Each structure stands twice: as C-alpha cells, then as structure tokens.
What does this fold into?
Amino acid sequence: MWGDTITLNGAGATFPYPMYSKWFSEYNKLHPDIQFNYQSIGSGGGIRQVLAGTVDFGATDGPMTDEQLAQAKTKILHIPTVLGADVPAYNIPGVTEELKFTPELLANIFLGKITSWNDAALAKANPGVNLPNQPIIVIHRSDGSGTTYIFTDYLSKVSTDWKNQVGKGTSVKWPVGLGGKGNEGVAGMIRQMQGSIGYVELIYAVNNHIAYGSVKNAGGQFVKASLESVTAAAASVKSMPADFRVSITNAPGKDAYPIASFTWLLIPTPSKDRAKGKIIADFLNWMVEDGQKMTADLSYAPLPEGVEAKVKETIKQVK
It folds into this structure.
C-alpha cells in the first residue's frame, strides 16, 4: 500500500507491551511494507524520547504532566489504547490461597511499616491463612514507569501517609525495597525471591505463574483484577476529558478493581514525516476498529464504546 518498507520507531511503556507486540505484528501482516520498532523501556523513557523527538511515537501509562507538555516542540496527543491493571504479586512459600489486601496494608507494606508476612494486620485481613514468620521483601521498579505511576497514584488516594511521604509519579523515592527494570524485571525478581511482593501489570503475573491478591475497593469489596473488574473501573468515568488524561484508580462501584488504568500512545502531530503521520493515523483507526477485539486474550480490557468514538474523532488530528 505504501511502497518501500517504512519503519515506525516507538518507545515507552512495558505495561501494554504484550498487547502492542500483538497489534504491531497483526498490522504488519496486513501491510508487510510497514515495520514497527518498539523499545519497551518504561513510560519515563517513552516520554523523554517523545520530547527529544527521537521517536515517531511514545507510550505511557502515566499521562504526561502539563509541565512536560509545555516542553514539547509540537502538539502531543494522548491516544488511549486499552485498559490494564496493576496487581500485588507475591511469592510466599507454603501459601497457596489468594491473599486479600486492604488499601492500608498495601500502603504500609510499601512504606516499610509492615515487615513480616505474619503481621497481625495481614492475618486479620486473611483469616484461616497460615502466614509464615518471614520477612517481606518489597520489589519496585527501578526505571521511570507508568506501572509505578498507577500504583503510586492509587496509594496517594487511599493513604494520607503515602501522599505526604512519597506521593505519585513515574519515579518516586521508595522508602524500602529492591528495584527491578521493567515489568519483566520485577516479575523475574518476585519469582526468584521467597517472601517478596511487588506490583506488575496483570498479564506479567499470569504469564509468569505468580500468585496475586485481591484488593479492597472503594465500595468495600475485595476484588481481583480481571477483564470484568477493570471494565467496571473504566465505566466509572462519567465524562472523559478532551485530552484523555484521566485517572481511574480507586474507582467507585462494588465491582471495580481499584488499581486500573488506561494506557496511552503519545503521538506528536504534525509528524516530522507526513508519510509516517498518515500511517500512524491508519494504524490508530485499525487499533480502534479491529485491534480492540484482541484485548481479552491478553487480559487487557477494551476501550469503552463511548471512548472509542471520541478517540476516532481525535485521530483526525494526526498528520
């Protein structure tokens, strides 16, 4: 369709990388002359590269800040692609049950206030579970990360201590723990280290056969991350802002999973290369029309219908 082979270079989030890999591969089957070269380096790196103008598109799960957008040489569109979930994933020898985490428990574990798996507060939330007297090893991201943004955005909403002491961001000053690079790195460390807990995107826990717990939501229910519970969180958005920069953590509703998020492609427009701009617009339309049908197989939730229509309208600005 386009003639010579064209390579589109992108960089950023690891959170949606399994989904993007699938989409890039499927789109390439339809258009063999179009290749995607995507570096899964974390949202912080994706934002940096978009601002530096070294990629055709970026990807992030933490929307760019007003300050970052002000640094951009050109307009940058946030195009929501799918929804995913951060899950508290753990490796506790002898514990086969699904653990329940309250917001306070997660905040206090990652603040370093709860240091043993048999802590009374953990035992209270998990009656009947034989929790071992074993130190908790906290694993977090070492790189700038949208997965971290989602997790810390959530903790900042549910814990005043967290909000005041740590706050939210793609990178934060962790009070405790060891750092892993990418969702892949954190998942690998949890698998290797007994007594560990970390946060990863749902598909990384599923693919690596790592146990993950349910989280008590704003409606007072313990909910596990799933296609349905992430979709319920997305349904809580009553009015989507025009630039799509919205947070759905700690969403209301008894069925909503509380640590869920949209993830976005960052599209500079106008593109430095108009031919590439046209291809990106075509890919984005395909992603909305056909790509959404592929999300469930990889444990992501598709865009809500009302959002799809708004995204298609925004894609008209890509050139």
Remarks:
- The first strand starts at residue 6 and ends at 12.
